[in-house]
Every structure is written in C-alpha cells, then in structure tokens.
Amino acid sequence: MDVSIGQLMLRSAVSTYCCAQLSNILGSKISYPGQSQYTTTTASYWSNQESTLQPACFLTASTSSDVSKAVSIISHIPDCNFAIKGQTHAPAAGFANINNGVTIDMTGLSSISVNKDKSVASVGAGASWLDVYKYLDPLGVTVAGGRNGAVGVGGLTLGGGISYFAPRVGWTCDTVVNFEIVLASGQLTNVNANSHPDLFRALKGGGNNFGVVTRFDFKTIPNGQILAGSVKQNFTHRNEVFKAFSDIAGAKHYDPYTSLVTGLLFVSATKAWSISTTPIYTKPVLNPPVYRELLAIPSTVSTLALTNLSTYAAEPATAKLNWAFFTGTYGVSVELLEKMVDSFNATMYDFNIPSGIIWSVSLEPLPTVITSFGSKNGGNVLGTSPSDGNGFVMLLSGLWNNTASNDLVEKTASKMVNKINGIAKGMGLLREFQYMNYADPSQDPIGGYGKDNVEYLREMSKKYDSRGVFQTRVPGGFKLFGSR
C-alpha cells in the first residue's frame, strides 16, 4: 500500500512539473483543474469513462507547432505520461484522456482545404467528419470519412475507418495520400509514398503507436446527393432481414455503391428487441435494385430519401453515458446471424442492472471489394485481403447509467462475444481480424492483423520511436508490444 501511494505521489509530482514546463512555453494554452478551458474540455467527452478521468493539465493545441513543442518537452521528462484527444471515437477510459498526466486536445487543429483541382482535401486531425462534409459538399466532392458526423477524423482514420464509400475506395486509411505527423522527438514531418513510405504503410491501421498526426491529406471523391435513411421492420421479420443482409453482403459481385448497416436493439426495461437497417446508396438513385429484397419486407418506418452527406451526417448528439464496445468479424451466413441473436438473447433477456441497460448489435458488410484496396497506395497493415472472402463486422455496444455496474457489464459483454466467436469458429466462419475502432481494451485488434504485420509494426516503432515513447508514455489505445 505504501509503495502504491508513493508511486501516485511521484507521478503527481512529475505531472505537475511537466505541466509547468509546458506552461512556460505554451502559456495560456495549458489549463488546469478549476479553470474554464479545463472544464469545457472535460465536458466534451461523450463517454462517462473518459470524462471522469482527471489529467494534471490539458494542452489546447491550435497549431502543429504547439503539438511539436509539447511532445519535445514531454518526451524528455521521464514518467510524464500523456494522451491524445481528438473528437474521441472510442469510449474506453484512457484512450483519449489520462489520470494525472497531460492530455493534448487536438480539436483546435480543424482547418480544411482542398488543392487547386479539388483532388486532395487536407484536414486537421482535430476536425469532425461533419466539419469536413459541410466544407466539401458545396464543392461537389467528398472523402471516405465516418458515417456519424460527430466522429473525429484522427481516431477513425488511424484505426482503419469504415465509410459509406468503402466499397468504392477501401478503408478510410487507404485514401490517405499524406500524413503530417509529430514524431517522438518532436520533429514535424510529412509521411507519404515517397517520404518515409515504410511509416506511411504503418500509419494505415497502426493507431497511436508512432506519433501524433496533425493533418491528413485525403483523395477526394466526386459526390452529389446520395440515398440515405433507415428502414425499421417488426422484429418478427428478423430472419427475412438477415437473408436480405446476407444476400447483399455475400454477393459474388458486390455493388460498390452499397453501404449497409443492420442494427438490433435490446432494451432491458421492456425486454424488447427491435431491428432496423440503413441502406445507403452513394448515387442519387431512389430504388437501387440491390435493395429490392430488403425493401420488399414489410416495414413500420422508412425515412429513405435523396439527401446531401452533410445533412444526413448531422446526427443528434450521442447520449453521455457509460459505454462498452466489443467487436468480431465473421463469414457471411444467415444461420450464424440467427444463432447470434439467440445467443445474445439468452444472456440479455435476464441480465439487468440498476437504471437498466440498452444493448445494440450492428452488422456491417466487409466484402472483398473493400479489402482489395489493402495493397494499393502503399498498402495498409490491417491484414485483410480478398482471399478472406466476403464477411461482416459486428459491433456489440452497451450503454448504461449506473457506473457501479461498469465491471459487470464489461465482463458480461466479453462473455457474450466469446460465446459468439465459439459458435462462429465451430461453423468455420470466425475471422482473425478485429476492427480497432470497435474493439474493447480487452481485445487484441493488432494481433488480428497477422504475425507479419505485427512484426512490421514493431520494427517501425523501433525505427521511428527508438525510446518507446508512444509505447510506454501513451498508455491509451492498443500497444504494439502487448499484441500476441
């Protein structure tokens, strides 16, 4: 006990000293507990797990130079740990905030511009995707960004990134042509196919393991209106919906304009399931043939219409609750989907906590037309390829009020996903890949990239961060030397 208290006191003293050194250089951009900027930044997190952490100070960065100066200082102060905050994609505690350390708030780096022919959009790492779409829509172009406009550019891209345009251009990271990054030394550099091409590949799926990315340059996509909205069916039609989902996701010739999410919701208070689908089509076509089977199923609500991406992505703010994300990837099978729901229901139906819990299961196609881009534009490290065949990604999320139940919910969710994985494995449908942006801290998405990619990432870490600053001093996220 005394050692633990001593370690906490030492860490506090180091953090205080570290913040003081930052303040000497960056002045009022450093904020402390009790100050208005500190309070505002803390309130901006959308999960309780992140907002309850208390860094010794926040750096509210507004330029790449701010980040460069900060990393130069922090990396040379032993035991000064830090976190990197964008728009905070993941809900897990410590992924974008830290107790008793320094949190670098990147949201001030939100500038957006395009080059002369509008073929490349340069986006600050702290921007939200809604910011990007609002800027690009009037120009007749877009980028393969997040589907919820509130999601941040930085976290989604470094973890891979699923977009409505993924079947046309690959993962979001596949569309990056240049990263502006602050390395562990504090050096600000550009990384692309010609400058540091080895690191260029590592950053596409490598998370926060190599530096602080301050700007992304994306290939743009010509774009006007799209078909967007949702269709809600009675849960008694779930097997018909699963059949339609599987026929689309498993198609030999996947329609590249198709982006589909089927969502299942279970509310503990009513013990009721609901099912809905968002059949997006990235062309201005009202009734695309690919959705004929799905839309023939009787629906209770349909909001499908032609709209602009910036309009559709302006979703209501996410409820500030406790959240858990777990993920898995599987081969396409109606039978597996039916077994998944039965398995989830076996646990969820009788599971409850004070104030209740809502469970959400999202099913998203991962066809070979997406994974075929993994070897292009310098390649990525995700380990997905067309040889895997068509599959789908599952996100299990829980949201609840009662913080005292956090451990119980996490353990229950983990058991449910492990059970699903066992079912899928027995059917020969379990995939090794786990999507980083949907993974729980207990999962190992980097390990799922495959042995060769893990070793490659570790080599890049040793080359560009020889002191292991982003492995040992940035505890949040998925670390390279913790992967199997």
Automatic annotation (TrEMBL):
Keywords: FAD, Flavoprotein, Oxidoreductase
Coiled-coil regions, chain positions: none
InterPro entries: FAD-bd_PCMH, FAD-bd_PCMH-like_sf, FAD-bd_PCMH_sub2, FAD-linked_Oxidoreductase, Oxid_FAD_bind_N
GO-annotated molecular function: FAD binding; oxidoreductase activity
Positions of the FAD-binding PCMH-type domain: 51-223
Secretion signal, residue range per the UniProt entry: none
Gene3D superfamilies: 3.30.465.10
Top-level taxonomic group: Eukaryota
Family: Belongs to the oxygen-dependent FAD-linked oxidoreductase family.
Designated name of the protein: FAD-binding protein
